[in-house]
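Category: protein sequence paired with discrete backbone structure
Discipline: computational structural biology
Format: plain text, a pair of labelled lines
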Amino acid sequence: MAGSMFGAVFPIFAQRNKGVKVPELAFFIAKYFGSGVIIATAFIHLLAPASDALTDPCLTGVITEYDWAEGIALIAIFLLFFIELMAMRFSTFGHDHEHDNESNITLSTEPHLSEQHMLATLKDSAMSRSHSRSHSHTPGDDHLGHTREHNIHETTIHENEPTREDYAAQMTAIFILEFGVIFHSIFVGLTLAVAGKEFNTLYVVLVFHQTFEGLGLGSRLAAMPWPPRKRLTPYFLAVGYGISTPIAMAVGLGLRKTYQPGSQTSLIVNGVFDSISAGILIYTGLVELLAHEFMFSEVMRRAKLTVVLSAFGFMCLGAGLMALLGKWA
């Protein structure tokens, strides 16, 4: 618990209390190192064990007739994308920003309206909007690539303030990440609680595992621009991650006599939930952390090549160390 709590809470505390005098380089390293940890966790510590569990020779029936681990992870990825898509759509259309006449385009299903006609309509509408805008954005200007059109005066005043849709996107990404790591931590605790002779080795490895994973979560929570009335929210999320493993261990100890690690029920339960967690962290890692932090980040596009390569190197280091831990746990 100490490793998980420290890794998740300390980045938030250090970022808000400048008296701690943690250099900015440390936050930079933690952010990208943590991204690598999360991506490696998805593939090495979740998807691979899920596949092993659901293809175990002890299992029989329909579950042996398909690659369920990869299939369940795929379903989780598309489900998360749909959730984020809907969150962004309703946060965008739920307020009073003016976005030209984008909603005035009507795609008719009448037979007389050909595909060429619809494309021409879309093209004309896009051209008219481009002439009416006083400035333009590069794709991916704001967080997660969800660009929004605002006039110059509004942009100048609120340059450093996240828009409502940006905040909704970031909150969606944060809660997806939180759900994924807590889901995984619960089964880490259960596994440790029912471990036998391998307990000592497993314990040491999982301490590093949980600390690194907490660091990845904590660095993201620290980087989030929380509004004043929600300043305590990241601490609650970090503590929730920190206590998830000990609580799961307590449950596992209570079920130690009835929960058999190699039984058909435990193999199916672990395999299914590890697959779900893998899908969550694959989506979060590759979409929210990897693509948008490097390709859609205005800061990264303007940064020196040495900065970009350093961030990539720290991310690879985090993924490499987490993948190495997969040899033992």
